[in-house]
């Protein structure tokens, strides 16, 4: 069974996501949305129960997805290794979140 990241490591994960977000914004400014999406999907947070990490990562992935104008051909641009990551991101985002 997968181990979950403890809350004290959540801050480190958030910091990595923030760094990744800056890189993605740079790629989007260079009109490279597919590269931005690949960057967003790479190094997705490890198994964590921390909702902040999951939410922060989803925001980054969503930003990159929304920049792609031709969504129908999105999968032709991505390597199959990214399909699973993208699907997990979508599934997690569609589940109801507990109220805080």
From TrEMBL:
Keywords recorded for this protein, A-Z: Cytoplasm, Cytoskeleton
Principal localisation: cytoplasm
Any one GO cellular component localisation term in the record: cytoskeleton
Pfam families: P16-Arc (PF04699)
Subcellular locations according to the entry: Cytoplasm, Cytoskeleton
InterPro entries assigned: ARPC5, ARPC5_sf
UniProt family annotation: Belongs to the ARPC5 family.
Role of this protein: Functions as component of the Arp2/3 complex which is involved in regulation of actin polymerization and together with an activating nucleation-promoting factor (NPF) mediates the formation of branched actin networks. Arp2/3 complex plays a critical role in the control of cell morphogenesis via the modulation of cell polarity development.
Name recorded for this polypeptide: Actin-related protein 2/3 complex subunit 5
Organism: Abeliophyllum distichum
